[in-house]
TrEMBL record:
This is DUF6691 family protein. It comes from the Bacteria. The chain crosses the membrane at residues 41-61, 84-106, 112-133. Pfam families: DUF6691. Keywords: Membrane, Transmembrane, Transmembrane helix. It comes from Tabrizicola soli.
Amino acid sequence: MRLLSAFAIGLVFGLGITVSGMINPAKVLNFFDIAGTWDPSLAFVMAGALAVAIPGYRMVLRSPAPRMEDRFQLPDMRVIDRRLVLGSATFGLGWGIAGFCPGGALPALGTGAFDVHVFVAALVAGMFIARWLRSRTLVATRPL
């Protein structure tokens, strides 16, 4: 049941990204081009997502536990550290340069466009590199 639920949620998300046009990198990049061909539609997509997510989270978090898990998996780290800032900056720069974010790139794979495949390959490579670097720093800083 969890797999079916995850599939349905991913399908709705992917359809929403596709219908809103956010799998088109030109549309996303035009949002960032304030001095040129600015397209505010991304702001409306984000506002619509927040309008659904905020009340949804408030409603769901009133429950003692999720329906298909023992407990909620919420972040317990509240510190804004160097890793968070660098990761956020890297995400933003990649989004601004390529016009894709991971959430929009995965549904865009269905278009068969070469640039989407390059982006997703770079995304996966970056995840492995980050995991490798993190494991090296954890080993280097581990007490003896």
